[in-house]
Structure formats: structure tokens, C-alpha cells
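Appendix B, example 12.
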Amino acid sequence: MKRTYFVLMGSCVTLFLLSGLVVRHWSTTLAVVMAVVAMLIPPIAVILANAGRERDR
């Protein structure tokens, strides 16, 4: 589960950085969509990480 959490959080950071530094120069709408998707990832990552703890018990 740790690997899944780190992959999800890494993709979250990558999406935020790409949307703010690269994509906004071509399409503001796409940058906003990417940022919104990035905002949805952390809660999902936490839920999956906590669910993994329940399975380990």
C-alpha cells in the first residue's frame, strides 16, 4: 500500500507542477482541469492507504 500511496501522491505533485508551469501557457482550461484532478487524488490516496491497514490486521 505504501507504493500505491507514493505513486498517487507523486502523480498529484506532477499534475500540479505541470498544470501551473507548462500547460497553462497553451490552455488555461486544461490547466484548471489538471489542478482539479490533482486535488482529488490525495483523499483517494489516504483512503486506499487506510484500507490497506485494515487488511493487514
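Helices lie at 2-21, 28-56. The chain has one domain: 2-52.
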